[in-house]
Automatic annotation (TrEMBL):
<feature type="transmembrane region" description="Helical">
    <location>
        <begin position="116"/>
        <end position="141"/>
    </location>
</feature>
<feature type="transmembrane region" description="Helical">
    <location>
        <begin position="88"/>
        <end position="110"/>
    </location>
</feature>
<keyword id="KW-1133">Transmembrane helix</keyword>
<dbReference type="InterPro" id="IPR051311">
    <property type="entry name" value="DedA_domain"/>
</dbReference>
<keyword id="KW-0472">Membrane</keyword>
<dbReference type="InterPro" id="IPR032816">
    <property type="entry name" value="VTT_dom"/>
</dbReference>
<dbReference type="Pfam" id="PF09335">
    <property type="entry name" value="VTT_dom"/>
</dbReference>
<feature type="domain" description="VTT">
    <location>
        <begin position="25"/>
        <end position="137"/>
    </location>
</feature>
<keyword id="KW-0812">Transmembrane</keyword>
<protein>
    <submittedName>
        <fullName>Membrane protein YqaA, SNARE-associated domain</fullName>
    </submittedName>
</protein>
<feature type="transmembrane region" description="Helical">
    <location>
        <begin position="38"/>
        <end position="58"/>
    </location>
</feature>
Length: 142
C-alpha cells in the first residue's frame, strides 16, 4: 500500500509546477511486479490528474489578479501564453503530459476559465495515454 501512496504522491507532485518524476516511480513499480499493471496506471493517472486540477485552480485564482504588480508571471509571458491557448483552445490540453509546457498549460487553462468538466476529460485522456505507453514500452523491453 505504501508503494501505491508513493506513486500517487509522485504523480501528483509531477503534475504541479514542482519538478518531480512520476515516470521513474511507475517504471520501478512495474518492474517490481508486486501490483497489477492496471492498478499502477490508475493510481498514477489519478495523482497526475489531481495535480493538473490543482494547477487549473491556481490559474483560476491567479486569473483574478490580472496585472497585479506582484503577479508571479510577467505580463508579456502571460499574454503570449493566453494567445497560444486562445489559438489552439481546449485541444491544446492533449499536450498537458508534455515536459516543461504541460504544467503551465494547465494553469493557463484555469486562468482562461476552461470548463473543469472538459479540462478533466481531456487531461485524463492525455495523462492516462502517456502512462499507458510508458507501461507498454517498459513491459515490452523488460
Amino acid at each position: 500500500m505504501l508503494a501505491l501512496i508513493g506513486l500517487f504522491l509522485a504523480a501528483l507532485l509531477a503534475a504541479t509546477l514542482f519538478p518531480a518524476q512520476s515516470e521513474a516511480v511507475l517504471v520501478a513499480l512495474l518492474l517490481n511486479a508486486s501490483h497489477p499493471v492496471w492498478l499502477l496506471l490508475l493510481v498514477a493517472t489519478a495523482g497526475n490528474v489531481l495535480g493538473a486540477i490543482l494547477n487549473w485552480a491556481i490559474g483560476r485564482w491567479l486569473g483574478h489578479l490580472g496585472e497585479h504588480p506582484r503577479m508571479p508571471v510577467s505580463a508579456s509571458y502571460r499574454a503570449r501564453a493566453e494567445a497560444w491557448y486562445r489559438r489552439w483552445g481546449w485541444m491544446s490540453l492533449f499536450g498537458s503530459w508534455l515536459p516543461f509546457i504541460g504544467d503551465p498549460l494547465t494553469v493557463v487553462a484555469g486562468a482562461l476559465r476552461e470548463p473543469l468538466w472538459r479540462f478533466t476529460i481531456v487531461v485524463t485522456a492525455a495523462k492516462a495515454g502517456r502512462y499507458l505507453v510508458l507501461a507498454a514500452i517498459t513491459l515490452a523491453v523488460f
